[in-house]
Amino acid sequence: GYIYKNLRDTTQNMYTPVPMKTKSNKDRSLDQLLKEKKPINILLLGTDTGAMGRHYKGRTDAMMMMAINPKKNTTNIVSIPRDSNAIFPGFEDYGVTKMNSAYTLGGVSETIKTLDKYYSVPIDGYLLINFGGLVKAVDQVGGVDVVSPLTFNSMGYSFVKGQSTHMNGKKTLAFVDMRHEDPKSDYGRQERQRLVIQALLKKSVSPSNLLNAKFLNAMSSKMETNLTMGQMYTIAMDYRKATDHVDQDHAQGVSKQTMNPKFGLMEIEVVSKE
To answer: Are 108 and 116 spatial neighbours (Cβ–Cβ below 8 Å)?
Structure first.
């Protein structure tokens, strides 16, 4: 009963419905998909606010499509490059702009419309967290253990390739924020973001954390989702085995210089290729 109350209060605080209907999912209903235990697609978004002194609305520096398949018991997480070229539906006068600016202009709804325009993948639900919330969430679950894919230093912390590191919130932020020293550039950062999200998701659904009101309150104040408590419960019960087999990937692109006539800025963009 205590778990139920914590979950109810938390999901009510996080619940933020947005228009979800696009060309790709106009005939889909999340409730029906869950009832029939069919594969679902959840969009994970991370904004660059709430940490390192950033308090503006921000952009979605992390965009991940998570496909959960209860039939095959698999979960696929694919990162979308934040610097992808995009012309936003409803904001065409802005010209070619970075994909992560869709959130700045039109929130989650505009981000979903833009992803549908370029990827045509139905999105059944979304979960948004800011980086300040990520720091708090990691601290509240007692830290996460992640194997670093490369050796590097960031914000006073050191990471060694192939070595598992236990990280608190601040160290996690240092782990996911570094980009310029990574030989894979933003693709490398996307990989590290996926590793942290995987580790955090597994710890956050443990009974001890569902009983932890402080953890739940910290999460609810930094997160938004259109998933109801009933939908979350169904996913947790009927789709949980799918998280035991997680595959990672990213949308690959090629570098291209573009001029945005509205802002007069020359930027390096990533044109989505596959």
So the answer is: no
Q: Strand pairing partners for 255?
A: 270
Q: Could you tell me the end-to-end alpha-carbon distance of the chain, in angstroms, rounded to an integer?
A: 47
Residue 212: what residue type? N
67 CB neighbour count, 10 Å cutoff: 17
Cα separation, 272 vs 99, whole angstroms: 10
Each residue's pLDDT tens digit, 105-148: 999 999 999 999 999 999 999 999 887 777 888 888 889 999 99
CA gap 77, 41 in Å, rounded: 10
Identify the segments of the chain with pLDDT beneath 50.
50-56, 259, 261-274
The confidence score (pLDDT) of residue 269 equals: 41
**Tokens at residue 89, please?**
């539906």
Query: Dihedral (C-alpha) 208, 210, 213, 217: value to the nearest 10 degrees?
Result: 130
